[in-house]
Every structure is written in structure tokens, then in C-alpha cells.
Specification:
The complex is a heterodimer of chains A (about 500) and B (about 1050).
Chain A (H helix, E strand, L loop, with lengths): L2 H16 L6 H10 L4 H4 L22 E8 L12 H5 L7 H4 L21 E4 L4 E4 L3 H4 L5 E8 L5 H10 L9 H9 L9 E7 L21 E2 L18 H22 L2 H24 L6 H7 L19 H17 L4 E7 L7 H25 L6 E6 L3 E6 L11 E4 L3 E6 L7 E3 L1 E2 L6 E3 L2 E2 H11 L9 E3 L2 E3 L15
Helix pairs in contact in A: 2-10, 9-10, 12-13
Chain B lengths: L1 H21 L18 H12 L18 H6 L16 H7 L17 H12 L39 H13 L9 H12 L6 H9 L5 H11 L2 H13 L17 H13 L4 H10 L8 H6 L16 H21 L18 H10 L3 E7 L3 H31 L1 H11 L7 E4 L1 E7 L3 E5 L5 E5 L5 E8 L7 E6 L22 E7 L12 E2 L2 E6 L30 E7 L10 E8 L9 E7 L10 E2 L15 H14 L1 H14 L11 E7 L6 E4 L7 E5 L19 H8 L7 H14 L20 H13 L4 H9 L30 E2 L2 H12 L54 H5 L18 H9 L1 H17 L10 H13 L5 H20 L1 H7 L13 H18 L6 E2 L1
Parallel strand pairs in B: 2-14
Antiparallel strand pairs in B: 1-15, 2-13, 3-6, 4-5, 5-13, 6-12, 7-11, 7-13, 8-9, 8-12, 10-11, 16-17, 18-19
Classes of the chains: A alpha/beta (about 500), B alpha+beta (about 1050).
């Protein structure tokens, strides 16, 4: 056990046993269960008093944590991961009507749409010869650890439903997101931090908090939004003028009052309340420690690009909010620090990759922002021996069309529309066999021709890496057992190491 | 919460086992053994048939003539003979087919997942035990499930201890307890009871004085009196209205990407509050919300009620298929109606025939048809108080308006004619301004516009509409002695916004106006022709801000005259010359109009005139052609001349102007009709209804067979008023006393609010997969009572809260923990954390900050910085409300679907995207941090400290009674006296905090926050330290589990 962790645990035990009147054995038991100390003995399923207690997986897991990098708006796979020489040959030509007849577009005018080539330079990386465009040189350097899935497809073609699909498995409001399922299934491995943390850089996402919702599950399982400016957790700081000593004294009095009540009424929910105040108190010190980067070496900060200045004209790009270079890099580093501290699921968001126009300027900008920190994260995890147990995912909500956009017939629109039929995401670490490409799309990237992977399949695989059978991980609500994979999904075995 | 959660966990475990078993792909080689358990057909067998058999052996198609969906059909058997032989499972065809051991080698089902050995074992055991199949509800409704059966007429049973029984509820509960040999808990103490009742009925804690009054009230019916008083409080409508808003998925924005605010959503919320406060019977409450617009003589109120189904999400994202989202909204309306009134998960039948409940997919779209022809409409819906305030203001306004107008009229009749006669006597043509319309001989547009000269001497521009233009106009006539020029800009229906300019909205910008006098023989259109006339001053009847009349003659081509704010009307610009013109006969004037603003801000229609009046700078001058008529007696003037001369005189009469201005000024203060500002979200039926189709797999792009509106066949039949049944028929069908579900579902949900758990725990699922009622006779008795008491919700509340069952103590009973872990027998009350909004309300109430105003638009209380920024593209704005609006009850907090108020969400408020019949109750560190540090709760602690100190002053010359203050703080927050250990803990806390504050007095001062009025608060250092210590005590009390719990 991490010595820091041990001393905290010790401090807490002594607090509970020496504390005025003594908190009852029940409360202590529930707190110890939080620590996972008793989990093996009891083997309980989630119950209200200890919803975050550690629970065993269905079988031996590979991954213990996941860092999910969500590129909101949907990056173009045709310009990053899935080169199509044929598309360049056919540049400017119409697609046969048979291909577009039954397809809906958000903005493309079907009648006059033409194919759009790609202006990127491509190179092959690693033994598998993985194609990566010139926009992601640093990530390309990690190709040996990365598995591409070029045959992703989804059910939704608008942003918000698409994001809900990627995060919750269905394109509707109300279902729990991946991180909620993992914490519901496995409990929280961190002593001082929530098990599901969300970090955003730049402007907001179109789905907002619904992307990290716990849906019909209790809010214990929802993503906790840490912020990289001001308080990392809402309401973390005590009011002005209130010292930590005053806080400790008042929490002791509070525990005494609550304990007195528990003694009279015998309600274990009161013990749970006492425990939640203790975790809150620990978070007040652990969360600021978490975001304090002063213990990181200059080399590490440099590698992630934590001190990168904004580009001079960065503000003119849709993805270019003030300070975005810095905050995205910081989020990547924070993700590693959280994983080190036992956070099970870290969700990084950046918007927007929705390049309907000006793709040859907007996409390079976003890639300049993301490439260095994401690559640094992969290398850092690997060097620290964490990559084997940490799954890293790069994904948007869908892909982009091989057809160029011609909205209002304006020539200045050089971009691509939403494309749910075929897109690429990649995974690394956490039991993934790197240096390989799964699936294949046709010559112009319109449809999948080999190994199609639906989002439900992707989710089944993700749960599998955590030692969870997606068919068994169920939650009963409104008379039905729900799964992250809805009514479908199968594990993509080729991805597994 | 704890209990229901444990149940859920249990259910999950069961299901995990089930799935794990079902997952085994291998068909068994031999016949699996029969299960070793007592079989319940509804629980164990029907789901297997429903899932794996009925799609081929059911009502839709009966392969091999075998049906496994009805008792009669199954018993008859199929083409191969009887499906089973009771008691002989191994020889039964059904078992051989599902096990794959039949001679034919066929395995059922032929497609999809095979039955697991365990499932086959269940079927075997069922057959071996006699193949009992309960009657299908008398063979009429096709289901034997309890909730579809008529409500039973149950009388409260006899009990051994009738003294405990206060009403029928108690008899049912006690009979069961007695059967189990359990005694009920004692009644909670009076302090707990009043806090319980206040929180349950109003969502507010009782004030200390209310507690004391109740403790002292010795009347035998003191409790009933209290219940009556609380039910009569207008806060009752808020409390139970909020519960209803959970079901109505109420929110103040559209949801999805744009998440546009809904400024009128609150109007429906007001309706709900009012309806509950007036105890609108639940059947009417239902009918108005589902079909208020179809009621005969539907009034505004009934139409506002239909806002219930306007709370669906709306997607305005670019490229979204509007039909897709209209269908999605309609589906939501069907699902919500099914969940709220029927307690059924009809949603499952959206894509396929319901696996467990007797709902066909066709029936689902039959319900869909009732809602398929709606069109959203925002209707005028002023509140009654707004209307009466308006009427009052309007009456006063009209009286004043009439008075002012009468003064004008009186003056016009009594004084004006004499004055005009007087004026006419002394008038001479030189002293009044007569305008002679100029004849435009040539008109040229530099930008290529077509300039047409009309018979009324006006000029009309059409054709090309350049960004900028310069008009060069050559005027012919007698200009000798001319002193000024008038440019009339005229409105015209043919112009955008009726003109006078040529932009789409009718504006223009005249940058420069030049006048040149050209000698009779010179070329008027030559560059620099003639002599520029020196211009003196320019005035206009109307000017747009920063576009003055003077700008037309200032020599600066960038400035100009424009008339936004007066578009669509005639205007005039009058320019005086420095010297009267010395023009020879035949000389011409060339007027140049520069319009360089861009964006087609050019003149559309205009007229020019000149005058020889001494001082031409008068607006509304007299047309020159009437000057001659001035000399004639009034009676001999032409009607046009009379009107023009009278009008001219009126415009010069200062007294009349003054009176008229008073009228105009007053008119600007006319009260605004609230029906133009307060709207409500409602809808109308399309004149021509849409055709409804079954949507294959629920996909709106795959319409199947057409369907007519109809209800579920498992329930009593629908009565329709006309040819096609409509929503009003549907609503009346729902609340027909014969309907076995609506009353049961409703009383169960009310019960759930009072006990934390319904008599049917799955309050959202009364179907076959839901929980069975713990007290079925009580449920039916209550459901019938509800109807018998005229669907009065207040009477239902009173019935429940005056029962002995409700009044029990909520202390856990360790001796029953094993036997009745979830307290289903109700041998005590349950403790429940209050809902998110009430967490806020109790803190505001205890501190005294609360603004208790009822109803009205939503407000935006303080939230931590940066929260709203998470909305799309910064489109979500959160301008924090000011003043008392900051302290309104939680239910009035603006609910922005994509970025909901964090405090509410932390405490498990529903996300409002779909109907919520039961809230979760979580217990997280984020809740602790919210109560400890959220700005609102910190402010409550600070205000509470001041209140404690203010309300327990030291006696004159004496010292403060600190234990007395602790006692008062306890009463304010928890409505009771502290126990000795509690009092001591707080006294110790107070002393320690005071010592810590003394060590750092400057820090302590910060703890006090902002006083309501700085002037009122001048504290010594000692007082500051003491107050700071009380802030810490107050904050601790606000964070106790008990504070946010209904005991």
C-alpha cells in the first residue's frame, strides 16, 4: 500500500475510534469497506450505505483505469488515420446516386455534392505500417502502443445524440455513461477522490453534463467535473476566514451530533452521511494537491506542454478558446496524476472538431493543440509502468464524409459533414494489443468493408478489459435490466493483447 | 432509498444469474431435470413464453395452430396435438421441442437464443406440478395480472387492538402486523410530528413559534387542526406541485444542443400550483392537462394546463430532421402518459410487442395516434392578478386620457376658431410659410436606379438598387426670392418596410444635400454647373440618433440624416438659404442628394418644394397653392384649402400644441396588456389529422400499417364522443372509475412520498415485471376511497397523514431488521432525506432569508462561477437574479437542461428529460461540500448566526445565556430541544471556535460575510468574534443529517 495512503487510513481509523463517544462499529465497517479492506470478505453488490465500496470484477482484468479523450464535434478520420488515395483521384466528382440515395446529411446539398480529396501528407509507422497523417507527428511516434479501429460505426448523425451514443450506448437522454457503469460495477479505488472525473478544455461541449451523467443510477456514480481554473471541484474551498483547524473542529462536532442521532435511531444512512463528510474533508486537501503541479519535473511539464502559450491567432479557430493550449496539456497531465491516485475513469473533453468548413486550417490547429500532450501522456504512462493497466481512448462521436461540403453553394466551405457510417478511433494500453489496425473501409471511406465495430461492440470490449462481462453488468430500472451495450455488443477479440 | 436500493441490487443479482445461464449456447443433449421449486406461472413461466414463443405462437400468428399466449389456446394444443400432459413433463411435446429431444429433431425456438437448461427445468416443473394457468381475467381482458383486475371492494379488517386504529389505513396495516406478531411503533413526539407534517405538506420547516403553539395545543383534535391549517397553506400547492413537475419533466429550456430558454414554461407551473391549492379533483386535473383544449368552451386556464405535454425536448440543431424530433416528442408524450397515469412501461412496445405486459406494438401506436396531430402554440395567458392590475391601471389611464383629450376638444371648440379668425385677419403671405412644389424636369441616378416623376410631383426610385447613389435633380420654376428648400421623404407601400428608404426595412441616409442655381442658358447637368447656393440651417421633423438634419449640410460626406424609429412614415427636412435667391426667369435649381452610407440606404420616394417665406424654418408649412385662398372668407374656400389652412394654423398654435403634447406624452405610459407579455405553452389539433402508422422498430423512416387511435385492450373499453376518438375521450377513459390502474397508481405514488416507498415498490411499473403490492387490500381500499371522495387530493393527503401508521416514530427497530429489512410491514415510519429543492428551502427558511413569494417566472440564484460556460458555445447565460429573487424556493430555480443548477443535481433532482416517478436519494461527498461551502449555504449560515444572536439578546446589564442560544439555534433548525449530549457538543464547539477566532480576529471578521445593511451592524471586536463563532455553530447545524431529513 502507498505509504501516503496508509497514513491517511491510519489517521482515519484513529479518528473514528478515539473520537468523542466513538463512532459506532457500523460506521467504521462502512468506512473500511470504502477502502476495499472488507470488500473481499463481504463480496457485496452495491448498496446504498457503501455504493463506492470496491467490488470484484467478473474475471481477471487487464485495465484498472481509463483515460477517455473525447474530441467533441468529430475529427476527420480521412485527414488523420484513414488515407484514401482514390478519394484524391476522384476529387471534384459526384458520388453515384445509389450511394447517397438513402443517406441524410446535416448540411450537404445532395444534388450538387462532390467528393473532396485530402491535402495531408501520409507516412507509415511501426511494424504494421500504420498510416498517420502529418498532423499528428508525436502520436505517430507512439504507434507501437496504439490500435486503430477504422471500422467504427454509430447510429446517430447529430452531435448531441452522437455524444450520448458514444458515452452511454444509446442516442437518448437518461442512460448512465461509461464511467458510471465502471464505478457501479467495480466501486471506487481511490480513497480521497471520486472514481469518475471529467476535465474540459476550451469552450463547452454541446451535450454538457448529460455526457457524464449517471442517468437512472444514483448520482454517486456520475462524473465529477473538476475544473482546471479556480476550485478543481465546485465548492471545495472553505468560506473565506475559515481555517482548516476550524473546519476539523466543526466536522468533529458535526460527527458527534450525527452519531448521537444515529445512536438514537439506528439508521445506517447516518453512518453513510458521516463517511461522506470525511471524504469531503479529505478531498479538500487531496484535490488541491492533485492539481498542484509543483512536484512535477521541468522535463515532464515541458513534455506535456503545460506552459505552452496560445497561438497568436488561436482565437479565430473554433477550437481556440483563451488558454486552451495550456489547459488541454494540463488536463492530460492531471489525468495521469488521477490515475496514479486511484481514479478509475478520467474523461477529457475538447470542443470543437466539427469542421464543416475551413478544415485545412481548423484541423491543423486542433492537432497542434492535442498532439504533443496526448503523446506525452502515452509515453509518461508507459515509462511509469502505468500504461499496461491504463486504457487510453481517442474518439469523437462519429466521423466525417468523403464528400466536401457545399453549403449555400459557397466555395469557401472546404469541410466535411457528419458521417456515422465509418470512422476511426484508437485505443492504447490497458490490455490492448498495440501496433495494429482493426477493420477496413472502402476506397473512398464511405462504408466499412471489414470487421465492422459498432459502439456497443466497443463498449463491450472496454468493459471486458476491466474484467466485466457486458451481458452481466446490468442495472434494473423501470422494470427492465439495462446494460451499457443496450441489447447488442460483442467483444472485439482482435483488439486484446 | 436504502431499502429500494437494496431491492434493486437483489434484482440485479437475480438477473445476472438469469443472463449468465441464458448465455450458454450449447443445446443440451439430454433432457434437463425439472426445477426443484414451487412454480408461479406469472412469475416463472409466462415471461419465458412471452420472450421465446409468443411471437410465433400468439395472436399475430399461430404457427402449427398452437398459441401460448392464452390459457384456452394453450390448453387446446396445436396441429401436433396437446402441448403437454399435466404431470408428465418428459412426455410433453412442448418440453421435447424446447429441449430438442423430439423425434423430428426440431428445436424451439428455431431462431434466436435457445432456452437454457434452467428455463426448460422450470417449464418441466410447471407441467409436473399440474400446469396451473390462472384464468385470463375471466377470459375477457386477456391478462390475469393483478393490476389489470377491477379494484376489490375491501372493508377494513377486524383487528385485536382497535384502539390503535384511527382510520381504515390502520386496520389494514395493523391486521397484517398482528398476523406477524409485531406491534407497531409508538407515535412520534409532537415536535417530530409538526416538522414531519410541515416538510411533507409544505416543504418548509415549522417556525419555532408554530412548534411552541402546537406543543401547547391541548385540544383533542390539535393534530387534525394542524393538518387542516397546513393543507390550506398556499405552500401546499408548491410542495405537491413540485412532485407533479417531476412527472411532467418540467424545465425552462429546450434541451439538446441549442437548449434555448423557454420564457413561458413557468406559466404551466403556476397552473399546477393553483390547481392543487384549489384542490381541483384529480380527474379534472387529468382531463385538463391531457385535453383541456378540447373541452367545450375551453378557457385559457384549461389550455394552459395542456402545457403538461409541451415539456418535451426540442432539437433546433442545424440539420436535425424536424419530423424525426416531432416523432420523438410524440413518443415521449405517449410514454409519459403511460408512465404517469397507467404506471406501465408502454415505451417497450415502441419497437416490438411488449415482452412481458399485454401491450401489442399496434396498441402502442393506437395511443400514439391520440397525440400525433398536435401543433405547438404559445397562447396569451395573463395571470388573473395581472389582468386585474391591468384593468385597474387601464381604467385610470382611460380616465386620464379622456380628460386630456377633452381639454383638447374643449380648446378646439371654445377658443381655437376665434384665435384662427384673429390670425387670419392679420396674416400676410410673407409671414407664413407656403411651400411650392418644385417641378422636377430631369432626375438622374448615378447608381443606375430608375427615377420616375409622378403626377403629385414626387419622385419614385425603382429598378436597380445600388449600395450607394447620388441623385441629381433639375428643378424648373420661379425661384426668385426663394428663402428655403423642403425635402419630403415619403412612405410608399411599394417600398421595403413602406419606405421612405430603399433598404429592406425602409431606412435611408442622406449624407449631403447641395443646391446650385444654374443660369437659364447653361447646361444644368454639366459638372460644377451653376453657382452653389449657401445653405444656412437644416431641421427635420424626425431624426435617428446620431443622424441629424444638420449633418446634410455640414460638408462631411460621412455624416447624414436618417429616420430609423420612424420608418414607414412621411418625414420632412427643411433647409434655409443664407440669402434669398436672386434668380433670373428661366434659371433652374440643381439639387444633389448624396447617399453614400452603403447597403442601399437610398431614398425611395421624395418631393421637393421651395418657399419665399421670411423664416422658412417651420415644419408642416402650408402648400403654396393655398396661400391665395387665405384672402377668401372661410366659407368660400375649397375643402382642401380649408383643411390645409386649418391644419397649418393648428400647427402654429402653441397652446393647442401644448395640450396635444400632453395627450401624446400620456399615451406613452399606456399600460401594456399582459396578454401580450405573458404567454403559455399550449397546443392545437391540426385541422386535418396526420395518418398514424406503426413505426417498424420504432424508426420514423419505416412506417408500417396504418393505425387508428385506440386504447389498450387489456383495460376497459373506450367511449368515444364522435367518429374518431380524441384526446378528450382518452383522458376521460383514463379517469373512468372502472379503469383499474389510474387510481391505484396515483394513490401509490402519494403513499410513496409519505413513506419513501410505495405499497407497490416499483411505482413506475405496475406491469407483470413490477413488484407486487405489499398490502393489496389497502391499495384497493385507498384507490376506491380516492374516487369515492371525488378524487380530492387534499382529502387523500389528510386520510394518510392522520393515520396512526403515518404518525409512528421513524426510529429503526433492530429487532425487526432481520425479519423486515425494508420495513414493508410498516411497523414504523421511514426517515427520508428531503428532495434537492427542499434542501435549499430548509436552509433559507431556518436562516430567515427565504422569499416566500409563490409562482411567477423562474429565477437564477447564485451558482459557482463558470458553471454556465459549459453550455454550447457560451449560449447559456446566467445573469444572477437580484434582490429578493435570489432567495426564492428551490422549485423556482431556472432549469437549464444542458447545464442544470449544480446544487439541485448534486441532491438528485431529476434531469427533467423524461418523466420521473421516483427520485433517487444519494449520499455523496459533493453534497457535503455543497452544504459546507456553496455560496448560498454559507450566506444562510451567516444570516442564521445573526438571527440567533438577534433573537436571544442579553438581558439589560446581564450576560448572554449561551446555552439558551444553542437551544434557540436548535429550534430554528431542527424544531426541537437539544438533548444534553447535543447541547454539550455545540457548547464545546462554540467555545473552541470562539478561541480560534480570538486568535485570528481579522479572519473571523471575514466569516461574517456581508451584513444586510452595513449601517445597522457596527460590531466591536468581541462581538465580531462571538458572531463568527455562531456562524460556525449555525453552519454545523445546517450540515447535520437531521437538518435535511424528514424524520
Amino acid at each position: 500500500m502507498d505509504p501516503r495512503h496508509e497514513s491517511l487510513l491510519h489517521a482515519r481509523r484513529s479518528f473514528l475510534t478515539t473520537f468523542a463517544n466513538g463512532v459506532g462499529g457500523l460506521a467504521l465497517a462502512s468506512l473500511l469497506k470504502d477502502d476495499g479492506v472488507l470488500a473481499a470478505e463481504t463480496g457485496v453488490s452495491a448498496d446504498a450505505a457503501t455504493p463506492l465500496a470496491m467490488r470484484p470484477p467478473h474475471f481477471a482484468p487487464k485495465a484498472k483505469a481509463c483515460i477517455f479523450i473525447f474530441l467533441e464535434g468529430a475529427p476527420s478520420q480521412l485527414d488523420l488515420f484513414d488515407p484514401k488515395p482514390k478519394l484524391n483521384e476522384l476529387h471534384g466528382q459526384k458520388l453515384p446516386e445509389s450511394m447517397t440515395k438513402n443517406v441524410r446529411f446535416a448540411f450537404i446539398q445532395k444534388e450538387s455534392a462532390v467528393l473532396m480529396g485530402c491535402n495531408r501528407k501520409w507516412q507509415k509507422y511501426g511494424p504494421a505500417g500504420m498510416d498517420i497523417s502529418d498532423l499528428l507527428p508525436n502520436i505517430a511516434g507512439c504507434a507501437d502502443d496504439i490500435a486503430f479501429v477504422r471500422s467504427m460505426h454509430t447510429d446517430a448523425f447529430n452531435h448531441h445524440p452522437g455524444q450520448l451514443m458514444m458515452n452511454t450506448g444509446v442516442p437518448m437522454f437518461g442512460r448512465p455513461s461509461i464511467g458510471s457503469w465502471l464505478n457501479y460495477g467495480l466501486g471506487n479505488a481511490s480513497n480521497d477522490l471520486p472514481g469518475y472525473v471529467v476535465l474540459t478544455a476550451g469552450r463547452g461541449t454541446s451535450g454538457g453534463a448529460s455526457n457524464w451523467t449517471s442517468g437512472f443510477m444514483p448520482s454517486t456514480y456520475q462524473g465529477v467535473l473538476f475544473r482546471n481554473q479556480g476550485e478543481p471541484v465546485l465548492n471545495l474551498n472553505s468560506p473565506s476566514g475559515l481555517s482548516r483547524e476550524m473546519q476539523r473542529e466543526s466536522l468533529d462536532a458535526l460527527a458527534a451530533l450525527n452519531e448521537e442521532r444515529r445512536r438514537q435511531l439506528h439508521d445506517p444512512e447516518i453512518a453513510s452521511r458521516i463517511a461522506s463528510y470525511e471524504l469531503a474533508f479529505r478531498m479538500q486537501s487531496s484535490a488541491p494537491e492533485l492539481i498542484d503541479l509543483s512536484s512535477e519535473t521541468a522535463d515532464t511539464l515541458e513534455a506535456y506542454g503545460v506552459n505552452r502559450a496560445d497561438e497568436k491567432d488561436g482565437g479565430k479557430f473554433r477550437g481556440g478558446a483563451p488558454g486552451v493550449m495550456r489547459s488541454f496539456a494540463t488536463n492530460c497531465l492531471l489525468a495521469r496524476r488521477m490515475v496514479e491516485r486511484g481514479v478509475r475513469y478520467v474523461n477529457l473533453y475538447h470542443a470543437s472538431w466539427d469542421h464543416h468548413s475551413n478544415i485545412d486550417n481548423e484541423l491543423p490547429f486542433n492537432c497542434r493543440m492535442a498532439d504533443q500532450p496526448v503523446a506525452a501522456l502515452l509515453k509518461d504512462l508507459k515509462q511509469r509502468g502505468l500504461l499496461d493497466s491504463t486504457l487510453v481512448v481517442w474518439a469523437g462521436e462519429f466521423g466525417r464524409t468523403p464528400l466536401g461540403e457545399n453549403r449555400n453553394g459557397r466555395d469557401s466551405n472546404t469541410g466535411r459533414d457528419h458521417h456515422p457510417n465509418a470512422f476511426t478511433l484508437w485505443m492504447a494500453g490497458g490490455g490492448i494489443r498495440g501496433g495494429q489496425v482493426i477493420g477496413k473501409t472502402d476506397d473512398i471511406g464511405w462504408g466499412v468493408v471489414e470487421d465492422p465495430v459498432h459502439i456497443n461492440d466497443f463498449h463491450a470490449t472496454l468493459l471486458h478489459l476491466f474484467g466485466l462481462d457486458h451481458l452481466k453488468l446490468t442495472y434494473r430500472f423501470q422494470g427492465r435490466d439495462f446494460r451499457l451495450t443496450d441489447v447488442a455488443g460483442k467483444v472485439v477479440n482482435k483488439l486484446l493483447a | 432509498m436504502r431499502h429500494s436500493f437494496n431491492l434493486l441490487s437483489l434484482a440485479v443479482l437475480c438477473c445476472v444469474t438469469h443472463l449468465a445461464l441464458a448465455d450458454e449456447k450449447q443445446a443440451p443433449a439430454a433432457l434437463p431435470p425439472a426445477a426443484d421449486q414451487q412454480i408461479d406461472f406469472e412469475r416463472d413461466i409466462r415471461p419465458i413464453f412471452a420472450k421465446s414463443c409468443v411471437s410465433c405462437h400468439g395472436a399475430e400468428k399461430a404457427e402449427s395452430d398452437l398459441r401460448l399466449d392464452t390459457k384456452a389456446g394453450a390448453a387446446t394444443g396445436g396441429a401436433s396435438g396437446p402441448a403437454w400432459a399435466a404431470g408428465k413433463s418428459a412426455e410433453s411435446l412442448l418440453v421435447q421441442y424446447i429441449a430438442g429431444t423430439s423425434d423430428s429433431g426440431t428445436v424451439m425456438p428455431p431462431e434466436g437464443q435457445r432456452l437454457s437448461p434452467q428455463q426448460i427445468g422450470l417449464v418441466r416443473a410447471w407441467i409436473d406440478q399440474g400446469a396451473a394457468w390462472p384464468d385470463d381475467a375471466g377470459g375477457v381482458r386477456g391478462s390475469s395480472h393483478w393490476s389489470f383486475q377491477p379494484m376489490r371492494k375491501e372493508a377494513p379488517p377486524a383487528v385485536k387492538h382497535p384502539a390503535w386504529v384511527r382510520n381504515g389505513i390502520d386496520a389494514f396495516v395493523l391486521a397484517r402486523l398482528e398476523a406477524e406478531g409485531i406491534t407497531p411503533s409508538t407515535e412520534a413526539d409532537r415536535g417530530t410530528l409538526i416538522r414531519r407534517l410541515s416538510l411533507d405538506l409544505l416543504g418548509l420547516p415549522p417556525a419555532p413559534v408554530e412548534v411552541e403553539d402546537f406543543l401547547r395545543d391541548n385540544r383533542p383534535d390539535a393534530y387534525e387542526q394542524l393538518v387542516d391549517r397546513l393543507l390550506a397553506s398556499p405552500h401546499y400547492g408548491e410542495r405537491w406541485g413540485r412532485h407533479w413537475l417531476d412527472l411532467a419533466r418540467y424545465a425552462d429550456s429546450d434541451g439538446y444542443e441549442k437548449d434555448t430558454p423557454r420564457p413561458f414554461a413557468w406559466r404551466y407551473r403556476n397552473w399546477v400550483i393553483d390547481a392543487l391549492n384549489s384542490d381541483l379533483p384529480f380527474d379534472q386535473f387529468t382531463i385538463q392537462q391531457l385535453a383541456g383544449d378540447l373541452l367545450p368552451n375551453a378557457d385559457t386556464n384549461a389550455r394552459v394546463a395542456t402545457g403538461f405535454h409541451r415539456n418535451t425536448l426540442l432539437n433546433k440543431e442545424g440539420g436535425a430532421d424536424q419530423e424525426e424530433f416531432r416523432v420523438a416528442a410524440t413518443i415521449d408524450r405517449v410514454n409519459t402518459t403511460g408512465a404517469v397515469w397507467l404506471g406501465l412501461t408502454v415505451a417497450c412496445a415502441q419497437c416490438h410487442t411488449h415482452k412481458y405486459d399485454p401491450i401489442q406494438q399496434r396498441e402502442y401506436y393506437g395511443l400514439f395516434a391520440f397525440f400525433n396531430s398536435l401543433k405547438d402554440e404559445d397562447i396569451p395567458a395573463a395571470l388573473a392578478e395581472e389582468v386585474s392590475a391591468y384593468q385597474l391601471a387601464k381604467t385610470a389611464y382611460d380616465a386620464e386620457h379622456a380628460r386630456l383629450q377633452a381639454e383638447v376638444t374643449r380648446y378646439e371648440q371654445a377658443t381655437l376658431p376665434a384665435r384662427q379668425a384673429e390670425w387670419e385677419k392679420g396674416v400676410d403671405a410673407q409671414s407664413i410659410v407656403g411651400w411650392n412644389d418644385a417641378r422636377i424636369a430631369t432626375a438622374k441616378s448615378a447608381g443606375g436606379a430608375t427615377l420616375e416623376i409622378r403626377p403629385d410631383s414626387s419622385l419614385f426610385a425603382s429598378g436597380a438598387n445600388p449600395d450607394v447613389d447620388t441623385y441629381t435633380l433639375v428643378l424648373e420654376g420661379d425661384f426668385a426670392g426663394a428663402t428655403g428648400l423642403r425635402l419630403e421623404t415619403l412612405s410608399d407601400a411599394a417600398l421595403g418596410g413602406k419606405g421612405p428608404g430603399r433598404t429592406p426595412h425602409g431606412n435611408f441616409v442622406l449624407n449631403e444635400l447641395r443646391v446650385a442655381l444654374v443660369a437659364p442658358d447653361a447646361d444644368a447637368l454639366a459638372a460644377d454647373a451653376g453657382q452653389l447656393v449657401a445653405l444656412d440651417k437644416a431641421i427635420a421633423d424626425f431624426t435617428q440618433k446620431q443622424f441629424s438634419a444638420a449633418a446634410t449640410i455640414d460638408g462631411d460626406a460621412k455624416t447624414g440624416w436618417a429616420v430609423e424609429g420612424g420608418l414607414g412614415q412621411d418625414h420632412e427636412l427643411v433647409i434655409s438659404f443664407k440669402e434669398p435667391l436672386a434668380a433670373l426667369a428661366g434659371a433652374r435649381l440643381v439639387v444633389t442628394l448624396d447617399q453614400q452610407h452603403g447597403g442601399s440606404h437610398t431614398l425611395g420616394r421624395l418631393r421637393l418644394s421651395t418657399t419665399t417665406a421670411k423664416d422658412p424654418l417651420v415644419l408642416k408649412g402650408l402648400p403654396g397653392r393655398y396661400l391665395a385662398e387665405l384672402a377668401k372668407p372661410t366659407g368660400e374656400r375649397s375643402p382642401e384649402a380649408r383643411a390645409a389652412i386649418d391644419g397649418y394654423f393648428r400647427s402654429t398654435d402653441k397652446e393647442l400644441q401644448k395640450l396635444q403634447q400632453a395627450v401624446d406624452k400620456h399615451a406613452k405610459r399606456a399600460p401594456v396588456d399582459p396578454n401580450s407579455t405573458t404567454k403559455a405553452q399550449a397546443f392545437v389539433e391540426l385541422p386535418k389529422p396526420r395518418e398514424t402508422h406503426v413505426l417498424i422498430k420504432g424508426d420514423f423512416l419505416r412506417p408500417g400499417a396504418t393505425v387508428d387511435a385506440h386504447t389498450l385492450s387489456v383495460l376497459p373499453p373506450l367511449t368515444k364522443r364522435g367518429e374518431r376518438p380524441d384526446r378528450l375521450d382518452l383522458a376521460r377513459w383514463l379517469v373512468d372509475p372502472e379503469n383499474p390502474l389510474v387510481s391505484r397508481v396515483t394513490v401509490n405514488r402519494v403513499w410513496q412520498r409519505y413513506f419513501g416507498r410505495g405499497l407497490v415498490a416499483s411505482s413506475n411499473d405496475f406491469g407483470t415485471q413490477g413488484d407486487k403490492p405489499t398490502h393489496p387490500e389497502l391499495l384497493d381500499w385507498l384507490a376506491r376511497e380516492f374516487i369515492a371522495r371525488g378524487w380530492s387530493q387534499k382529502q387523500l393527503h389528510k386520510l394518510i397523514v392522520t393515520s396512526a401508521v403515518y404518525r409512528q416514530s421513524s426510529a429503526a427497530r433492530p429487532e425487526l431488521a432481520e425479519r423486515d429489512a425494508y420495513n414493508t410491514l410498516l411497523a414504523r415510519q421511514n426517515r427520508n432525506r428531503v428532495e434537492a429543492e427542499i434542501v435549499r428551502d430548509v436552509a433559507l427558511a431556518a436562516s430567515g432569508l427565504m422569499n416566500q413569494a409563490i409562482g411567477g417566472p423562474s429565477v437564477r440564484p447564485v451558482q459557482p462561477d463558470g458553471v454556465a460556460d459549459l453550455g454550447y458555445s457560451g449560449s447559456v447565460k446566467w445573469p444572477t437574479s437580484k434582490g429578493a429573487d435570489r432567495y426564492r424556493r428551490g422549485m423556482y430555480t431556472f432549469f437549464q437542461r444542458t447545464v442544470p443548477y449544480p446544487m439541485l443535481m448534486t441532491f438528485d433532482a431529476p434531469d427533467s428529460n423524461t418523466t420521473c416517478t421516483r427520485r433517487e436519494r444519494s449520499n455523496t461527498p459533493l453534497q457535503a461540500l455543497t452544504l459546507l461551502n456553496d455560496p448560498t449555504f454559507v450566506e444562510c449560515a451567516q444570516t442564521l448566526a445573526r438571527r440567533i444572536v438577534r433573537e436571544t439578546p442579553a438581558p439589560a446589564g446581564g450576560v448572554v445565556d449561551v446555552p439558551g442560544r444553542v437551544r434557540h439555534a436548535f429550534l430554528l433548525c431542527l424544531s426541537r430541544e437539544p438533548t444534553t449530549p447535543e447541547r454539550d457538543a455545540l457548547l464545546r464547539l462554540y467555545e473552541r471556535q470562539r478561541a480560534l477566532c480570538e486568535a485570528a480576529p481579522a479572519e473571523a471578521a471575514k466569516l461574517l460575510g456581508q451584513a444586510e445593511s452595513k449601517a445597522d451592524e457596527k460590531l466591536s471586536e468581541q462581538e465580531t468574534i462571538e458572531l463568527a463563532a455562531w456562524v460556525m455553530v449555525g453552519r454545523t447545524l445546517l450540515n447535520t443529517d437531521e437538518f435535511i431529513t424528514r424524520e
